[in-house]
Structures are given as C-alpha cells and as structure tokens.
Amino acid sequence: xxxxxxxxxxxxxxxxIAAIDTDLHQIIQTYGYPPLWQRPNTFESLVHIILxxxxxxxxxxxxxxxxxxxxxxxxxxxxxxxTDEELxxxxxxxxxxxxxxHLAECIAEGKLSLPALEFVPDDEVRxxxxxxxxxxxxxxxxxxxxxxxRADIFPAGDLAAVNALKKIKKLPADASTQDxxxxxxxWVPYRTLATMLLWHFYLEERKPVNKxxxxxxxx
Length: 219
What we know:
about 220 residues, mainly alpha, Endonuclease Iii, domain 2, Endonuclease III, domain 1
C-alpha cells in the first residue's frame, strides 16, 4: 500500500525531502511548512476538482457554491435530477455538465466506489477514476494528494507546481516535461511533499507583502 501523510507526519516528511534537496530546504527556511491541504472523500470533493480543471480556483468555488445553494447537499442522486439548463445556471460549462453527470451515474450505478479507493494502490485509483469521462491524470493527482493523502505523487500537469519548480531550479520558462520529470523522480518516495512545498512557495511568492520585501532587497 502507498505511503500516506497526515497532520502527525507532514513536517517530518517535508524535512525528509528537504534533507536531499537544498532548494526545497530553502522554501522551508524562508516560508515555513506548507499547510495540510485536505478535502473529504466525497462526491462533492471530486466534483470540486473537476470544476477546477483549467479555470481559476475562485471560478470553480463559485460554481460549487452555486450548485450547493441549488440542491443543498451535493449528491449523485440530486445532481442527476438537474437539467442541463439548471447546471448551466450554476456556471457549469457544457463539458463539465457532461463530466459531472457521468461521474454521478457511475457512483449511483455502483460502477465506482469512492470509499473503496482508500484501500487500493495509486495505480488502481488512477485506473478506476480515468475510466470516468472527463477525469484525466491531473484530476486523479489532485484527488490522490488532497483527498487520499498519498505521499508520492507529482502532478506534472499542474502549472503552479511546474512553474514553481522551474523557478527554484532556475530552469528556462520553456523547459519541457522531459526536463522536469527527472527532478521529480529524485524526490521519490516523497513527491507529494515536494509538490506541497512548491505550491507553498508559489502562493507565498505571490503575496503582496513578500513581493514588496523582494523589491526592497533588490534596490
């Protein structure tokens, strides 16, 4: 079974990966440890991740909140009662309406059990989830990290993580996946913790107070 992380070992695992990568160590030295990002293993959480595909986090959350206001509890049965027009009014695109409806059908018909995914290896989680229309590797990666807390996942399709990696490793902006993956491989078996540090770095660097501090240092 794959290694997991939780609140009790998050910092220790971050220290483990920082001990073999000085750039990750520097993130901890500068910004501290990342928060424990987590979501419950529910249909709603997976819908939320689907909504986050290729849009801003704020836009995805707005659609999720609109849906919650519409049906109170986000369950497969309640989603399947909605028409395409009703989902559109909740800011769902045509594609995401198809994806979420298909996910709801898979769960309602017993073809997919989210609780059962907690007890199978990463590859099997990926196999089962990618069988659902609209769920690709990025969605599975985020599910494995945020919901199942698997410790060795690197989401190569995540722009924030990839851009942060390029910055701390001083890679050119046009560095390819082939340039990036060997670096991520060096973080096995703690690629998730490295990713969380990259996200932490990305978010902290964008805060106005930290931008101001860097600008003063450059004067």
